[in-house]
Amino acid sequence: MLTSAILEPEILEKAHRTVREFHELIDLGLINKEGEFVPTLMYLPMTQHPPMTEKEFLKGYVPPRDNKFMVYGHIPFCIQQCAFCHFPNVLGASDGEKDVYLDHMNKEMELYLKKIGVNRMKAHCISVGGGTPTLMTPAQMKRFLSFFTSRVDMGEMKQFSVDLDPLTMLGYEGRERLKIMRDAGVGRLALGAQTLSDDMLKKMGRHHTAADTLRAIGVAKEMGFKLNLELICDYPGETPEHWVEMMKQAVKLDVDEIVVFRLKILPYGINTAAVNKMLNARDNPLMSNDEQVMLKSVSISLLERSGFVETVTRFFARTSEDYSVYLDDWLGETRYDNIGFGYYAMSAFHDRQKQNTWDLKEYCSEVDAGRLPVKIGIVRSRDQQLRRNFMMPLKNRCLLSKKLYQDRMGVSPNAVFSGKIALLKKYDLLEEDADFLRPTKKGRFFIDEMTQLFYHPDYLPFKRECYKDGPLNPYTDNVTLTC
Ligand code: SF4
């Protein structure tokens, strides 16, 4: 129980007020009747992409005139599958198997660029994720970075970020890897800490300890990296009291950013995480939705009280300059085409998106056959473009430029969504001036839920009967857009 013994009355009162607003939004039909949370980083949701061929993906694609992309590389190796992770990863690969993968990734890059007619990409930003990229040996990391960056002009690059876990940053090898990355231009590290409790780490199926995380933070800062720390706030077995104590510790750490994720029960990746099966286990109860909303509110208050500001949705930084340029580009501003290489890598271009296969054998055989390893994807329709270009900036950077939308879509956002905009303003969720639409404070807290009002019914995460019949029910007056 959260009480004034561990939290200031204003923070508690704000959290209680947010829970009341949560119930009001359920009654208005905006949020699922049971208050269920669904992660929806992008539109269209990746889990609903149909199968796609290389030919369908490439047909009619025109690369940016200046060859400027956001560049992504995927390294799929993990030691074990964390219980909350929905991604398909390659577990227990030998160094030899990792070498073979790198050979194919190198080939895929060559093929991909040739097929879209680009000689050398200009990077607005680079991100390397996984999996755990730092499970490569230092020699493999060097080889990977060498072929990966040789096709990229980094002269105007804003950020080069790599995802990693604490253990792979420690010891002689860890320092070697970090040094190799730093020499290649990496400036930001996203550290998958998830929690600072050994007990919770065990429950999550993680292979490192909280002490490893603290040591890794020290090493990264000593070597001059910007550091993002990832935490999950409502994992089964977590208690509100413990979480608050942990957040008080987290905000004092020497990190530049903290991202607080809510646990994703429904898959947002291709797999369903093991956590689904544990939910009803007696020793790992899941918090109620009310408690989860409270914890999110308390986390934000504790971060803000310590001077952190929300940059990209869910990401809090000590200064507004420190944020994930890749996520902001990809999910927020969507100004650049996001080109992804590797097993399960996604490419999200201005008019289409695709996901590579997550079958390692198939990935290698497709590349060997001279084909892009495309598995699923879509060339977006007019309806999908009108919705995506509205939602993504609003949802992920909490700011929609009316001019940018007009330039891209040839029509103003107010003309396309006048009814929904008026409704959200009426219920104090959205505000606007001559140039921008942005969520109010209340709208920002419920931004994932609020933006689902703009989803096409085919992509809403819950069926019609799962919402109350209120004025904000996302199925009401929701027809295919043609303007
Ligand atoms: S959370 Fe990260 S380390 Fe864990 S299985 Fe998923 S990709 Fe691997």
What is the element layout, followed by pairings?
Blueprint: H1 9-27, H2 54-58, E1 68-75, E2 77-78, E3 90-91, H3 95-116, E4 121-130, H4 138-150, E5 152-153, E6 159-164, H5 171-183, E7 188-194, H6 198-204, H7 210-222, E8 226-232, H8 240-250, E9 257-261, H9 275-278, H10 289-305, E10 309-310, E11 315-317, H11 325-333, E12 337-341, E13 346-348, E14 352-356, H12 360-368, E15 374-379, H13 382-396, E16 400-401, H14 402-409, H15 413-416, H16 418-426, E17 430-432, E18 436-439, H17 441-445, H18 447-451
Parallel strand pairs: 1-4, 1-12, 2-3, 4-5, 4-6, 6-7, 7-8, 8-9
Antiparallel strand pairs: 9-11, 10-11, 13-14, 14-15, 16-18, 17-18
Helix pairs in contact: 1-10, 3-4, 3-12, 4-5, 8-10, 11-13
This protein binds iron/sulfur cluster.
